[in-house]
Design a protein that fits this description.
Layout (H helix, E strand, L loop, with lengths): L2 H7 L5 H9 L3 E3 L2 E2 L14 E3 L2 E2 L7 E6 L21 H4 L4 E2 L8 E7 L2 H8 L7 E7 L5 H9 L13 E6 L4 E7 L6 H8 L4 E9 L2 E2 L9 E3 L2 H9 L4
Parallel strand pairs: 7-11
Antiparallel strand pairs: 1-2, 1-3, 3-4, 5-7, 5-13, 6-7, 8-10, 8-11, 9-10, 11-12
Helix pairs in contact: 1-2
The protein binds uracil.
The site of uracil (URA) has 8 residues, from helix 6.
Length: 239
C-alpha cells in the first residue's frame, strides 16, 4: 500500500496534508526517512514511525457498544444523534457502521465495524444467527406464550415467525423475560409480544451469535473486540 494512502486512512490528514508531512521528513519506514508519497509499504512486515512513534496499521475495526436509548443505529441522521456520533474521531476515521439495527429506544449490544463481509454474514437470513434480548413486559408472561413463541407467532402483517426461545425470568403484573430469535424483522420482539396481546416496555440486546454484551460497559460506552471475540465471530457457523 502507498505510504500516503496508509497515513490518510489512519486519519493523519488528507492526501495533500500527508504529502507535506512526508516532505518534512517526519515519517520513517524501517528507520529510513520516506519522503515519496508513492513509496509502497507493507504495514504487516515493515515498521512505520511518525516523529519516532510507531504507527499501528489496521484495516478493520470491531467495536462493541452498549447502545443507549435515544440514539439511532445508523451512520447518519438529519435529526437524531447516531451511534457513530458517539465514537471517538480516531475510530470514526475507519468509516464503521452498525451491524443491523436496534430501535431508538432499545439498549444493549451493538457491533460496529467496517468489515462488510463479516457484517453481511451476521445479517444474512440464511445464517440464522441467534440474537438474545432481555425485556420487561407490561403483564404476566405465561407458559402458553413460551409454547406460542416456540411454534412461531403470526405478526401484524401476517408473517409467521421462526421459533423463538422464550424464558420467563420473573412473572407477575410485569414480567422479565429473555427471548432468543434467529431473524431480524422490523421491531420483531415488540411485534411478537403484540401478537400475544402484550407490550414490551424495556428492551435490551444481550447477545448476538457468540458475542455477549460486556456488562461493564456503561450505556453509550464502547470498546474494541478482543482478538478472541473477533475469532469467535469469524468462525461462527450459525445455520
Ligand atoms: N426487536 C425489536 O422490537 N426492537 C429492536 O430494537 C430489536 C429487536
Amino acid at each position: 500500500m502507498r505510504i500516503d494512502k496508509l497515513l490518510a486512512n489512519l486519519g493523519y490528514g488528507s492526501r495533500k496534508e500527508v504529502k507535506q508531512l512526508l516532505k518534512s521528513g517526519a515519517v520513517k519506514v524501517d528507520d529510513c526517512v520516506v519522503k515519496d508519497p508513492k513509496q509502497h509499504v507493507d504495514p504487516n512486515k515493515q515498521t512505520v514511525t511518525l516523529n519516532g512513534e510507531v504507527i499501528e496499521y489496521k484495516e478493520f475495526i470491531y467495536l462493541m457498544m452498549n447502545k443507549p436509548p435515544g440514539v439511532i443505529s445508523a451512520t447518519e441522521d438529519s435529526i437524531d444523534e447516531t451511534v457513530i456520533d458517539l465514537l471517538e474521531l480516531e475510530d470514526q476515521i475507519f468509516n464503521p457502521f452498525p451491524v443491523g439495527r436496534l430501535d431508538k429506544d432499545t439498549e444493549g449490544l451493538l457491533l460496529i465495524t467496517n468489515d462488510g463481509q463479516l457484517a453481511h454474514r451476521l445479517l444474512s437470513p440464511k445464517k440464522h444467527v441467534p440474537k438474545t434480548y432481555f425485556a420487561v413486559i407490561d403483564r404476566e408472561v405465561t407458559e402458553d406464550d413460551v409454547k406460542s413463541f416456540a411454534e412461531g407467532v403470526v405478526l401484524d402483517d401476517g408473517y409467521k415467525t421462526k421459533p423463538g426461545e422464550l424464558k420467563i425470568l420473573k412473572s407477575g403484573i410485569r414480567s422479565d423475560i429473555e427471548l432468543t430469535i434467529t431473524e431480524g424483522k422490523f421491531h420483531q420482539v415488540k411485534r411478537m409480544f403484540e401478537a400475544v396481546g402484550k407490550k414490551v416496555v424495556y428492551l435490551k440486546r444481550i447477545s448476538m451469535g457468540p458475542l455477549k454484551l460486556d456488562e461493564t460497559l456503561e450505556l453509550g460506552e464502547y470498546r474494541e473486540l478482543t482478538d478472541e471475540e473477533i475469532e469467535l465471530l469469524k468462525n461462527d457457523q450459525s445455520k
